Amino acid sequence: MQSTFEKLGGTYRQEGGYLLPNVEAPESPAIGIWGQRRLQYLRTNKNVLYMTMLMSGKLKDHLEEVDKSAEEMFEQMTIQMQAQEGVSEALKANNQLAWVQRMNNIRSRVSKIVYKELIYE
């Protein structure tokens, strides 16, 4: 005769008079801010594409790829613009306020480019 554990399938642990399944929460996706922004865009503006990717299981991979690409693009363009505009560590040491203003301006412009190229495509 089979035990109760075998009849239920899977693995269980007994706590008190109850059999509780040994389940683990699914791994949360490694999606950063850019992937989350892409997800929000897909949900609100490209619902058919969002649902298709969700149902086919490709959404998580897509969001991870967009997140990785956007982060790399953001970092690379920020460094390039800093060099082109002379925003250096020397400026940071001599005039922190000017450095912060110029860096915020660069980051804002780069963000707009990343949105246009990767997030809102």
In short:
The protein is mainly α and 121 residues long.
Distinct helical segment count: 6
What is the H-and-E element order? HEEHHHHH
* Range of helix content: over 70%
Largest sheet: 2 strands, antiparallel
Mean pLDDT: 89
Q: Give the quaternary arrangement of the chains.
A: single chain
Give the low-pLDDT segments.
none
Order the strands across the largest sheet as they lie in space.
1-2
Number of beta strands: 2
State the separation between the terminal residues, measured CA to CA: 60 Å
Radius of gyration: 24 Å
Overall body shape = elongated
What is the structural class?
A: mainly alpha
Number of domains: 1
Strand portion, in percent? 5-15%
Write the topology of this structure.
Blueprint: H1 4-8, E1 12-15, E2 18-21, H2 33-45, H3 47-56, H4 59-85, H5 89-94, H6 96-119
Antiparallel strand pairs: 1-2
Helix pairs in contact: 2-3, 2-4, 4-6
What this model shows, in words?
By secondary structure, this protein is mainly alpha-helical. The protein has one domain. The chain has six helices and two strands, in the order H-E-E-H-H-H-H-H. It has helices at 4-8, 33-45, 47-56, 59-85, 89-94, 96-119, and strands spanning 12-15, 18-21. The protein has a two-stranded antiparallel sheet with strand order 1-2. A hairpin with a 2-residue loop joins strand 1 and strand 2. Helix 2 (33-45) packs across helix 3, helix 2 packs across helix 4 and helix 4 packs antiparallel against helix 6. The longest helix has 27 residues, at 59-85. The radius of gyration is 24 Å and the shape is elongated. The relative contact order is 0.11. The mean pLDDT is 89.
